[in-house]
Design a protein that fits this description.
By secondary structure, the protein is of the alpha/beta class. It has 2 domains: about 5-205, 3-Layer(aba) Sandwich (Rossmann fold), CATH 3.40.50; about 215-380, 3-Layer(aba) Sandwich (Rossmann fold). About 40% of the residues lie in helices and about 20% in strands. The chain contains 14 helices and 15 strands. An 8-stranded mixed sheet has the order 10-11-9-12-13-8-14-15, with helices on both faces. Strands 3-4-2-5-6-1-7 form a 7-stranded parallel sheet, sandwiched between helices. β14 (about 365-370) and β15 (about 370-375) form a beta hairpin. α1 packs across α4 (about 80-95) and α13 (about 320-330) crosses α14 (about 350-360). The longest helix is centred in the N-terminal third of the chain and has 18 residues, at about 80-95. The two termini are about 40 Å apart. The relative contact order is 0.12.
Length: about 375
């Protein structure tokens, strides 16, 4: 299957080629004809399966570049995800030669500057629900010409304090606007809420992503209190080009960030305790390669797609196999090889067995030996029940 076979506009096909994207993913194949027909839809597929392009391609085709009005609004739960989507929109517009104006609207930045940019009538706005609602309420962002609204990471936006803002945005748009929801996960509460907005919604699903065969899965056993030091030693031993560390507990993240800084290992921290400008700076430094290590929680990293990650480290071990799969899927993208290293306590060994059994993957036990990572026999653990 090719994008041309799906009747994607030649200029957009050429734009994808410049990003070395030549074959559509399963969710893109499912979504393109439905969204092109103007139907409301829910795109449900695993992280990293191309959901953003699945809705951008057909919605871009509907934007009239000659109409000086905002025609597409994309709402996301985090600033990092909003920035990522805005960059994807900009790349698609520039590489296709479409003269579209894309504007990022998030909190933590000057509203006056955003209001000034809104005077240029952007065709597409991307941002957080709170800031978009505020600008609509002030009459600075005109919703009268919105043809489509996308709610990315819908499960999160429909469950949290952002729901009132989201409702206000939808109510301000024309009644015939197209609604697109996208998420890697879903539950009954999310589906019930969406049904109130879009009763005729089409559910589009792609099968769960298989475990990437290019990922080498390792684990090392240590005590909880020793994890920060073991992580530091692993970074020195493995010398990752670009690494992502998952630490879900704020106290753990703070300790690790301080320990790595003390040992002069540059680290970008997406801790929730940081302010918005710091978070943006952290992401920019990591994306540019200026800082080789990114420290994040599952929530902080949600929806992010960062190229060139060679290693993923699990400091706080995910209890669910699906969460493990999401995390390690950050590495070995686009045919590259990658390593996933999980630090477990003796009491967490059962989770290693769970990953093996439920995901069908081989996890190799390793230890540090004079600054080197070496594989060791783990048969002592194999006969223990989960």
């Amino acid at each position: 299957m090719t994008f041309a076979a799906l009747d994607v506009s030649p200029d957009l096909v050429a734009a994808l080629g410049k990003q070395e994207i030549f074959e559509p993913t399963a969710i893109q194949v499912a979504a393109l004809p439905v969204l092109r027909a103007g139907r409301d839809a829910y795109l449900h597929a695993e992280t990293g399966t191309g959901k953003t392009l699945a809705y951008l391609l057909p919605l871009f085709e509907r934007i009239d570049a000659g109409l000086a009005a905002t025609q597409l609004a994309i709402v996301a739960p985090t600033h990092e995800l909003s920035i990522q989507i805005q960059r994807q929109c900009t790349d698609l517009a520039q590489n296709s030669g479409r003269p579209l104006r894309i504007l990022l609207l998030i909190g933590g930045t000057s509203m006056d500057r955003q209001v000034e940019k809104l005077k240029k009538k952007p065709h597409v706005v991307v941002g957080s629900p709170g800031r978009i609602r505020e600008l609509i309420g002030k009459g600075k962002l005109k919703a009268a010409h919105l043809r489509a609204i996308v709610v990315d990471e819908a499960d999160r936006l429909l469950h949290e304090e952002s729901l009132p803002a989201l409702k206000a945005i939808l109510q301000a748009a024309p009644r015939d606007r197209q609604l697109v929801f996208a998420s890697a996960t879903q539950d009954q509460k999310t589906r019930d809420t969406i049904a109130t907005f879009a009763p005729g919604l089409v559910m589009l699903e792609a099968g769960e992503a298989a475990v990437n065969a290019n990922i080498e899965h390792l684990y090392i056993v240590c005590e909880e209190r020793d994890k920060p030091d073991v992580l530091r030693k692993l970074l020195h031993a493995l010398k990752p080009e670009r690494a992502m560390i998952f630490a879900d507990r704020a106290d753990t993240a703070e300790l690790v960030a301080a320990r790595l800084a003390h040992h002069k290992i540059p680290t970008a921290d997406l801790s929730a305790a940081m302010d918005k400008l710091d978070r943006k700076r952290a992401m920019d430094d990591f994306r540019s390669g200026a800082v080789p290590v990114l420290l994040a929680s599952d929530v902080g990293a949600r929806g992010l797609d960062i190229k060139g990650i060679s290693h993923v480290f699990n400091l706080d071990v995910p209890a669910q196999s699906k969460a493990y799969l999401h995390r390690v899927g950050r590495t070995a993208r686009a045919g590259a090889a990658g390593q996933a290293v999980t630090l477990v306590t003796p009491g967490e060994i059962r989770l290693v067995r769970r990953y093996r059994n439920q995901l069908g993957i081989a996890l190799t036990r390793v230890e540090l030996d004079h600054g080197r990572v070496v594989a060791i026999d783990d048969s002592d653990w194999s006969d223990e029940s989960d």
